[in-house]
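Friendly challenge for the regulars: who can give me the structure tokens for this chain first? No prize, just bragging rights.
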Amino acid sequence: MNQRYVNAYDVVPLAWCDLPEAEDWYPPSEGPVANLDVKALLSEIDLLKKHNVYVQPSAQGTCSMNTDYSLYDHELVNETLDDFLGQVAVQHSNSVYLTLLGAPAALSGPVVTAAPSHRRRAGPVTRSSSPARASLTGPRCSSRRTSRAGSASGPRP
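First reply, four minutes later:
Bragging rights claimed.
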């Protein structure tokens, strides 16, 4: 079966279709709320698409998850550009999608803490990984996302 799973609060899929909609994306009671800097940035990014159009490939069904905004970074809720962009990154991250799908968390890749310089011999490279996190038991699908006013809107592309 060809089914698409989407995080109802993932802004990234809007980048090629309706990015200005992201101005009212996150519930104001949890945040972050888009301030003037966020709105200006979204408008500028939206202009970059020019007349290009992106459409998701067809699927037999769409499963919209996180419709109640229960999975978000509680540290990124202030009305700032940094917090808004941080929440965008969190909502689009692999770890959030894996958690929503009930899959085990992926171990993080190697982290480079020192890199060789072209002018001298190679320095040490340190690798680290984080332990897997506990996850939900499986996807929780809904055809609607709760909007900031408490009403519902349709699934996201």
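Residues 100 and 131 are 18 Å apart (CA to CA). Residues 125-138, 147-157 have pLDDT under 50 and may be disordered. Your move, everyone else.
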